[in-house]
Amino acid sequence: MRSTLRGYQEAVRLFCDYATDPAYGWAAECERRFGTHPIQVCHEWNTAVHMQECEAEAPKRAFTRDELQAFFDHADDEVSRVRGRGRKGWLPAFRDAMLFKTAYAYGLRRNETRMLDHGPPAGRRTTRPPATRTRSTERRPRAP
Question: How far is CA 132 from its chain centroid?
């Protein structure tokens, strides 16, 4: 409910900003037509403020720092647990842990994370060097 109230207050504040901005001339027009001019009525002291760090519902809110650290620690522990059993599966667990950290560090969305390029499958190494861009028109300046 608080966020809805703040949304309404923000709409009124933005309209008053528009109506009182000299660039648009509404203050002079209102003075001419009505004998008075508009003023800003929404100020810090008379509007609702944020009371919490995040007011979104629990399923939609961002992790706190402690929750995020616990999540990353769990992903790392999962790699150690799977690898410690001496069975297959630790490499995908490691990949997932790195993917979570990369997505968070660079602020990637789900689709951007899904579209990340990856190297060749494990065990298959390519003998070709990576492709590089070169410009045939670029030349070094000659020494005089």
Answer: 31
Q: Is the model more confident about 5 or about 26? A: 26
Angle formed at CA 12 by CA 47 and CA 41, multiple of 5 degrees: 60
Contact 68, 104 (CB under 8 A): yes
| Residue 51: per-residue pLDDT | 62
Is residue 43's pLDDT more than 80? yes
Task: Say how far apart CA 14 and CA 8 lie, in whole Å.
Answer: 10
d(CA 37, CA 135): 63
Structure-block tokens of residue 83: 């690898």
The rounded percent of the chain whose pLDDT value lies above 90 is 31
Residue 34: pLDDT over 80:
yes
